[in-house]
Each structure stands twice: as C-alpha cells, then as structure tokens.
Design a protein that fits this description.
single chain; alpha/beta; Aspartate Aminotransferase, domain 1; Aspartate Aminotransferase, domain 2; 2 domains; four-stranded antiparallel sheet; 12 helices; 13 strands; globular; binds pyridoxal-5'-phosphate
C-alpha cells in the first residue's frame, strides 16, 4: 500500500480529520467578525445567534432540560475545574474512580490539600470497569457531596455502566457528575434519563469540533462559584458578577470561530446520527481488537466485550517498550498513535502498566478499513521482528 498521508489513530487526543463543514464554518466566522453579547450591531447579533444555536444543538443532542445551562469553555479540563472548584468546599467528600484522567485527579488532589475528602474506588484490573455497587457502597460510608465518574476510559476505552447511578445519587442527596471527554459524540447520552447533574466534555474529540472548545453542563438548581470573573456583555453598570446562566460562568470573549466549527460539527452529528457513529466505531474497534488478539506477542487491555468499549484501545508487545513501538509506527509507517501514560497514571496502576504505559490507538469516524489493515500488518511485522528501531 502506498501511503499518501499519515494514518491518524489518535482520535482520543483530538479527532482528525473534522467534517469539511467544520473547516469552512471556522473560516466563515473569522471573516464575519463580531463578538457574541458585545454590542447590538448586526455582526455582534449574528455571533450571539450562532452561540445560542450551538447551545440549543447541544441541548438537543444530550436531551438536556435547558440550553442555557451549557457553559462554553476552552476544553474539558477547564469545564472540570469550573465544576470542582465551583462546587466543593472544605469538609465535602467526593467519591471517584481509579480510571480518572489527570484533568480530574489533579484538581481533586489540590482540593484535598484544601480539606476536601477524596475516595477512589478501584476498577477491575482486567476490564477497567468499576462496579456501580462499589461506588454506591463508598458513597454511603460517610456523607458524600459528589460522585464523579469517567464515563469512558481514555486508556482502555471501558464504558462505565452508569445506568441508574444518577437516579440513585438523586435519591441519596448526592450530586452526579460525568467526565464525558471520551464519550460525548461517541456514545448516546441522555442527560434527563441518566439524571446527570454535571457533565464536562471537549468539543474537539468525539463531537468533531475544533480544539479550543468544550463545555460544562450544570443542571437546574446547582449553583457554582465562578472560576473566572469579568465582563459578560450585560449589566455592565455593576461591579458584581451576574447571577444568571450562562453569563455567570462565561466571562470574557468567547471563541466564536471555534464555536462556529462546533456548531457545524453538531449539525454533522445530528445528520449522521449518534447511533450510526457508534455503529461505525464498533466496527473499527472489533476489527482492531480481533486483529491484535491474533498476534502472538500482543497483550490487549480492557474488556473482551466490544459493546463495553469506546474508541481508545491499549496494548503492548512483548519485548518492546511502548515508546519504541510508537517511534517505529510514526517514523517508519507514518501511523500516529499515542504511547505512555495518556495523562491517566492511576488507570495504568490499575491494569499493571505503570510506569511505561501502553501503545494506544483510537480510530475515528473517518478511519478506513485499509488504514486499520496497514496498522495491523505493521504490528505483525513487529511481532515477527521484521522491523527494527
Ligand atoms: C477522560 C478525559 N478527561 C479529560 C480530558 C481532558 O480533555 P481536554 O484536553 O479537552 O481538556 C481528556 C483528554 O484526553 C480525557 O481523555
């Protein structure tokens, strides 16, 4: 096979390519100008309308009760920080898991220093899945303010079985938050059916929007202290932060070109259908996992049941350091994969791959069968020692 461009298998970091309409929308917004909420002239109003439409599209995609509870951020990390620092106070208690990304682990560690109690419930060392009953047990030990779960692992792709957890939390006076960084756009998610209180996600991974976009959803009735204070375009006479959503948590100029791209991406997702995207993802996951399992020296991590997997697939090859595999894939075969700890050291401790980590491949909607074939042939050659670093 003659390669004309690199094979991109790092969609868990950021999706690539984006739908064509996304590139066009970013360019169009940059050319149109105007800052949402800043002025009543036509450019500002058009920009404001675009932001409104993007919130509406998110509310529709996730079946949220209200679109103005979506706060736009730069990425999932900012959204998670806004939720955690905005909510938690000394004396509060949080139950979470051992498969969290550093976007969760590090703010929680800082909050622990400030007097918040953190309890991490261990995931299964083979599947990477945390039992709901174990989470519930941990929540009941002492009064708990928040249950925070990584919906899909960015290391081994496990989808946490969260059905019923939100309702259970609601009945026990506990807030339920999901880190949806790897699930938004990949797995169908219904905020109302799942009783989700807080949901953080990037716009640039499964949602197929540009980097520099993300959001936090804050359910009705939950108030957060802002992470950032400043101009919101309205009530300019006051030196106090406005109380109304979404402005209260959205100070400063929004990333309009990014949101225009996200809006176009959301239209693409709606037209294609999340179910269709998930079906395609499952086909690719199945092909990769089956291919890898057939290679003698490959150790594949995560669940054997593909239905419990999202796009991140981790493996190692006997006698190879993951960094070496990543180097060969990139330098000799133009295959972009990620190696190491993937910003989730606890997850690697859980499956026994700390500190060197794993090789992670993550296909996307536009990945082709031929690309996967080439990747699998390359791993076979490594297995047969036909490639050298
Ligand atoms: C599970 C998980 N949470 C949070 C993040 C952080 O996302 P972002 O880079 O958009 O801040 C990532 C990024 O890879 C992730 O995989």
């Amino acid at each position: 096979m003659t390669l004309t461009k690199p094979i991109y298998l790092d969609n868990a970091a950021t999706s690539h390519p984006k739908p064509e309409a996304v590139y066009l929308a970013v360019m169009e917004a940059l050319r149109a100008g105007g800052s949402p909420g800043r002025g009543s002239h036509r450019s500002a109003m058009a920009a404001e309308h675009l932001v409104f439409e993007t919130r509406e599209a998110l509310a529709e995609l996730f079946n949220a009760a209200s679109s103005d509870r979506f706060i736009f951020t730069h990425n999932a990390t900012t959204a998670i920080n806004q939720a955690l620092f905005g909510l938690l106070r000394p004396g509060d208690r949080v139950v979470t898991t051992t498969v969290e990304h550093n976007a969760v682990t590090r703010p929680l560690r800082e909050l622990q220093e400030r007097g918040v109690a953190i309890v991490k419930v261990a995931a299964d060392p083979v599947t990477g899945i945390v039992k709901s009953s174990a989470l519930q047990e941990a929540c009941l030990c002492q009064p708990t303010r928040l249950l925070l779960v990584n919906h899909c692992s960015n290391v081994f792709g496990s989808i946490q079985p969260i059905e019923g957890l939100g309702r259970w939390c609601h009945d026990h006076g506990i807030l339920f938050m999901l880190d949806g960084a790897q699930s938004a756009g990949s797995v169908p998610i219904d905020f109302q059916a799942l009783n989700i209180d807080l949901f953080a996600a990037p716009g640039h991974k499964g949602l197929l929007g540009p980097q520099g976009t993300g959001f936090l959803y804050v359910n009705e009735g939950i108030e957060l202290v802002p992470l950032i204070y400043g101009g919101t375009g309205a009530n300019s006479h006051s030196d106090r932060q406005p109380q109304i959503f979404p402005e209260c948590l959205e100070s400063g100029t929004l990333n309009l070109p990014g949101l225009a791209g996200l809006s176009a991406a959301l239209q693409f997702l709606q037209q294609t259908g999340i179910e269709q995207l998930r079906t395609r993802e499952l086909e690719l996951i199945e092909k990769i996992c089956t291919g890898l399992k057939n290679i003698e020296s490959v150790k594949l991590y995560g669940s054997d049941d593909v239905m419990l997997r999202a796009g991140a697939i981790s493996f190692n090859l006997t006698n190879y350091d993951p960094a070496e595999v990543g180097f060969i894939l990139d330098q000799q075969e133009q295959i972009s994969a990620r190696v190491g700890l993937h910003c989730a050291p606890d997850a690697h401790r859980t499956i026994g791959t700390y500190p060197t980590g794993t090789v992670r491949v993550s296909p996307g909607y536009f990945t082709t069968e031929a690309e996967i074939d080439h990747f699998l042939q390359t791993i076979e050659k490594l297995n047969d020692k036909k490639l050298k670093s």
